[in-house]
Amino acid sequence: MATMVLPREDKLTQDEIVLGTKAVIQGLETLRGEHRALLAPLTSLEASDAEPGSQERCLLLRRSLEAIELGLGEAQVILALSSHLGAVESEKQKLRAQVRRLVQENQWLREELAGTQQKLQHSEQAVAQLEEEKQHLLFMSQIRKLDEDTSPNEEKGDVPKDSLDDLFPNEDEQSPAPSPGGGDVAAQHGGYEIPARLRTLHNLVIQYASQGRYEVAVPLCKQALEDLEKTSGHDHPDVATMLNILALVYRDQNKYKEAAHLLNDALAIREKTLGKDHPAVAATLNNLAVLYGKRGKYKEAEPLCKRALEIREKVLGKFHPDVAKQLSNLALLCQNQGKAEEVEYYYRRALEIYSTRLGPDDPNVAKTKNNLASCYLKQGKYQDAETLYKEILTRAHEKEFGSVNGDNKPIWMHAEEREESKDKHRDSALYGEYGSWYKACKVDSPTVNTTLRSLGALYRRQGKLEAAHTLEDCASRNRKQDEAGQFPQLPQQECGRASPAWRDRSF
Questions:
Q1: pLDDT class for 22, splitting at 50, 70, 90?
Q2: Proportion of the chain above pLDDT 70, given as a percent
Q3: pLDDT the model gives residue 183
Q4: Might you name a Gene Ontology BP term for this protein (predicted)?
């Protein structure tokens, strides 16, 4: 008979329990075999009643066998339970491994989510900034549309894209031209007066160049230059004047290298024969600045323009209209370099000179105010720009209709009143009055159309759509009249745009 396993006081492990159970099963199976061997002969004796007490022994053996069978069954259950617990533990370990993996993946996903959220935040900020820039560019594009008006001749194709007129503001157009033989010309040129034949030749060359007939303009200039050099020699002021004229033609043909060579030659002649502080030297310096400006070399052009300004201030005085023109040229160069403060300073000086010397009704005053307002727009000074636009429209109104009062208001006041009362009434009966007002003012103020569109764009940016529509409708009606030939087109320079659309015919 197998030895009985006594219980231990210390806690058994699962493996020890399994091993003990298997030992018990072996013992019980052995005991069961011995009981069956004893029971077999007793069963035959029990049937014959040959031996007394055999029945009682058989009964005891049968009960012992039942107990052994019960113990074997319980042991089998213990083994099955142990196997099941092992499988559960194995599955538990697998689940723990999966949990650890999921925790790691969760941590990684959290990090990825945090990084993605940060990128999204940066993207939203970039989108907001781009949207703001888009709104600003849309606003500025509305301003630049004001510069798209072309002259009637240009619309017919008579003038090439980059003609001689696409340079700094034309001095001949901005102020009354003195007579060729007058004393004013000699005074402004420091005793040197440009001969009348060269002035006539200059005008003729400009006419040919504006028609694109360079095959006529260039030989004409070269022949005149050759004749002057034969009669007067190379180092003569008239030769320098002719070199300036030919340089203008080359510049109009985009032959910048040839034009620069001629202008530098003319500058050397004029400095040698007339002196470094002569107004003619300032004109040549200005032409060189224009040339560099058309090539996008604004930094090289700026010192030339500043020197021309210094000469004109020294010779003509700081409050001469020609000084104001040079200040406007310098402002354009600085504007193309993004020097907003200097642009504002030069335009303010030019405006002061024009207002003081030529009076508030001179066209240059309104043009310079428009240029200064454009500068304010680029700096974000919308209130200052709005004030200048209103001054231009108010002055034009007063010039045509008299002082402003309750019954005599400029167009911008009507526009703001329509904005304030847009929800009360939406009749368009007043547009006819606006159109007649603008038609009357346009005769004496060619900058009114530009100002109407600029102020309309500014109103639109401020959300004053009804006021903007009022001004734009008035401007568009007059534009149609311009296209029909009733009124002259506006010069492109009035808006003071940053692109190098300058004019100059000084020579």
A1: confident
A2: 75
A3: 36
A4: microtubule-based movement
Q: Does 503 fall in a domain?
A: no
Q: Residue 484: exposed, middle, or buried by beta-carbon count in 10 A (0-12, 13-18, 19+)? A: exposed
Question: What residue has token string 């900034």?
Answer: 129
243, pLDDT greater than 90: yes
Q: What is the pTM of this model?
A: 0.59
Which candidate, 157, 140, 150, 133, places its Cα nearest to that of 210?
157
Is residue 473 domain-resident?
Answer: yes
Range of the structural domain that residue 27 is part of: 16-37+63-130
Tokens of 276: 């470094």
**Interior angle at CA 470, CA 469 and CA 475, nearest 5:** 95
- Give SS3 for 405: strand
CA 467/CA 246 separation, integer angstroms = 49
The whole-number pLDDT of residue 109 equals 92
What's the domain count of the chain? 2
Q: In the predicted model, is pLDDT for residue 504 greater than 70?
A: no
C-alpha–C-alpha distance, residues 167 and 403, integer Å: 37
CA distance 442 to 396: 9
Measured from the Cβ of residue 339, the count of other Cβ atoms closer than 10 Å reads 16
Torsion, CA 317, CA 322, CA 324, CA 326, rounded to 10: -110
- Between CA 294 and CA 300 the distance in angstroms is 11
Domain end residue (candidates: 78, 102, 130): 130
> Does residue 489 lie within any of the structural domains?
no
Phi, psi of 204 (to 5 degrees): -65, -40
Task: Provide the CB-side half-sphere exposure for 412 (13 A, CA).
Answer: 25
Contacts of 45 (CB under 8 A, 6+ apart): 51, 54
In a domain, 95, yes or no: yes
CA–CA gap between residue 504 and residue 507 (Å, rounded): 9
Tens-place pLDDT, residues 103-118: 999 999 999 999 999 9
DSSP 429: T
pLDDT at 448: 82
Which pLDDT tens digit goes with each residue over 327-357? Answer: 999 999 999 999 999 999 999 999 999 999 9
- CA-to-CA dists, residue 468 to 140, 406, 429, angstroms: 15, 22, 17
